[in-house]
Amino acid sequence: MADPPGCCRSCATCLLCLYSCQWITAKKEKRKGLRTTKCDYSWFLFLFCVFLFTLVWLYFAIIILNDFHNFNEFIFKQRKLWLDWSLLLLIATAVLITYSAVLLVLALCLQLCGQPLKLHWLHKTLLILTALVVAAAFIGLGIKWAEEWRSARVSLQATGPFLHIGIVGGMTLLAWPLASFIYRTHNTGLKVFLLLVYCTVMIVLYLAPLGITSPCIMEENQLPPKPALVGHRGAPMLAPENTLMSLYKAVDCDVQVFETDVMVSADGVPFLMHDEELTRTTNVQAVFPERAALNSTAFNWTDLQQLDAGSWFLERRPFPTVQSLSAGDRYQVAEQRIPSLEQALEAAKQSNISIMFDLRPENHSDYQSFVNATLEVILQSGIPLQQVLWLPDGFREQVKQQAPGIQQVYGRKRLQNEKEPLLHVNLPYQDMSSEEIRQYRQDNISVNLYVVNQPWLFSVLWCSGVSSVTTNACQVLKEMKHPIWLLPSSTYLMIWIVVDCTSFLAILWAFLLLK
């Protein structure tokens, strides 16, 4: 077996060394009898599958970054340990995909150079471990975070056209080592089988755009207005969540609604707090160590005012943006205290933004008194009631009667034969399809979807026609003047034809050149 033209012996020797983990010279006499066996080809197929498997996980890892802050909060709730786990996820994924990709490139180069594919046992072991780690990651995702499967489906609306181009390109490049192998092997049955499989896959890929749909494939003049921004607990990337500083930072980001969470203290004062415990966002363990594990509602307002609600933000750095805060902002962060609902309503009234909130915990035995106390503060605040968006389902009819001007927001889709038509819905972004969003828009139902942090997701929802989105990244989405991409149907059709034709000609060239 002679070395193909363009493949020097030293290069072939290096490739063999890296792939086989042993120094094997590329001279014929030194590798006499060293041939690629069926077992070796089986390991190459396994390597190819592991690479694809890891590549799919990389895609998922990038997609779930939009929701990863929720995972960090979940881990803290369970283990009282705060860490940005997304960084570890990306590092581990990068290591796995790089390792499998390098091995695959080595194998393809060896095939083009006519060298044997003798994968070392160490590489075999590491490949099996890689496959097991990725499989465990997918299983864990399915068990603990099943909604992310729906996030992946949403993401395909943003990435589908580009994934198609990338996969076609990758399969086109694969034609070179495939042609080299087919011309070298003497097994006619294997040749026919590989050609049939490859041709079938390519035909499917060439026709795939027929099944690709995206709301961003539209004419420029059909683009709906940019969705309004709802600050999730304010602007939590720029200031401690659910504080007055966070509210004002959200105002600077041009948000139209401040979304927050309300609890009621033991002495009846509604205040802003998301977690049932105070440990994550205050220094309660230092001030009241013996009471730190108690529910937030077990503290009276005087006790709550003694807590520092800002320093944790600088210590734990829940978002990378914390590192870029100015000295003035850092000083202001350290001065933050837990705000009352009365203070938040006054700030919202002065800033001319709306306020939307949940009332927690909904399973509390005194929940009706929480509703009464909250309504009393709202009615006494003087804020225009149309600026208040009410999310809690408990005692909603009572709220309608006592404060009919408050806008009622529902955390569900509309029902058939609905007695009272819904005007506002607030749902996870995974729960509504583009078609449903368009239909609600046509029926004048305001749709707010949460939590939307990544520009690609915001772009898809913008093209779909959503009314508003709740976000942690208001400073990022504020700067978007246009969806990331928008393609007229005619342009997309032209790109599809050019990509498929170019791919076909490249494959044809590969088989003719290597013949």
From TrEMBL:
One Gene Ontology MF term: glycerophosphodiester phosphodiesterase activity
GO cellular component terms listed in the entry, alphabetical order: plasma membrane
Origin: domain of life: Eukaryota
Keywords: Glycoprotein, Hydrolase, Membrane, Transmembrane, Transmembrane helix
PROSITE patterns listed in its UniProt record: GP_PDE (PS51704)
Protein's membrane topology: Multi-pass membrane protein
Every GP-PDE domain range: 227-481
GO biological process, one term: lipid metabolic process
Keyword Iron: no
Family indicated by similarity: Belongs to the glycerophosphoryl diester phosphodiesterase family.
Protein name per Swiss-Prot or TrEMBL: GDPD2 inositolphosphodiesterase
Protein's organism: Haliaeetus albicilla (White-tailed sea-eagle)
